[in-house]
Amino acid sequence: MVMPAQPVPTPTAAPAAQSISPAARPAPVPAPSAANPELGTRPQRRHFSAKDKLRILTEADHASASGEPGAIGAILRREGIYSSMLSAWRRQRDQGALTALAPHKRGPVPDPVNPLDGELTRLRRENAGLIARLSRAEQIIDIQKKLSEMLAIPLPPLTDPETV
Question: Per-residue pLDDT tens for 63-101?
Fold first, then answer.
């Protein structure tokens, strides 16, 4: 269904502007002087101590036991928390009392430190040094063999390969 076209009134700016008195005109509102287009400081996450959590939980438990409508909502508004936080704190309290209510460090759990890691790195470094020494010793032995062949000095044959 198409609506019938309505005539659009055209404003006449010149006569209307002259008819408005200067006192009736709206005063321009200046921009706030503290307006800063740069970002401010990042908001900090609120942390509740175990003592505060237990205090809020006992208040909420008393409020729910009283049966007064809106009592828990008033506590949540006063403390500035959400009902989900209250249920999470109850779950933590049921799992382990104060230890579960203590604040936890956020982020991934670091891998436990193996006490043998220091010894392992020391042995790997020592092994690399021994391999370098063995390579140098083999080069020296090769040079000695070539020198003995050039000077025609006979070398005794190796009979036991484990003595090498």
Answer: 989 888 889 999 999 988 999 999 988 888 887 765 655
pLDDT in tens, 92-123: 888 776 565 566 777 888 888 888 998 999 99
- Is residue 67 within 8 Å of 58, Cβ to Cβ? no
Cα radius of gyration rounded to whole Å, the chain:
43
Q: Work out whether the CA dihedral 58, 61, 65, 67 comes out positive or negative.
A: positive
